[in-house]
Amino acid sequence: MRHSVSLVRALSLALLATVTVAATTGCFRKGARGDYALPAETRPLEVPPDLTLPNTAGAAQVPALASTAARPTPVAGQAEAGHSGFTVSGTRDEAFGKVGDALAAIEGVTIASRAQLLGSYDVAYEGSNFLVRVVAVDAGAYVSAVDPRGLPATDPAAVKLVAELKTRMGG
Description:
The protein has 171 residues and is of the alpha+beta class. The chain is 30% helix and 19% strand. It has helices spanning 2-25, 92-105, 156-169; strands at residues 85-88, 110-115, 120-125, 128-137, 140-146. The chain is rod-shaped, with a radius of gyration of 41 Å.
């Protein structure tokens, strides 16, 4: 009978040692099973390395903004196409003063407001309302008419007024 008691003790001791080793190595811890054992909704997304960054080899380049991008540049034949505008020599502030004097001298022009910082006159002429703008360009100052939408004025009154300004200012 003694034999069986020592065999049971030996098996118990071996089982205890196995459980102790398994418990200390992490076999029964939750994280040791790996992410594959987690529910699909909680598993981290694995993205292949070649898909983490987009391929920009053939992408279009965005041009850099130039400081002159906001300035309109006069185009040859612009007045003939229905757009009114011309270039005068001198600075924008000088041209703004000359445009104001010329507008005051033209019969039928009513200046509703003037904004020197913006370089614009809000005018009414022959039943039309529009802006006369003076903008600095490389060749001096560009004088043009702009409709209420901010587009070049093609209204006959605006074209006529800008032509009169061009004649009076020698542009």
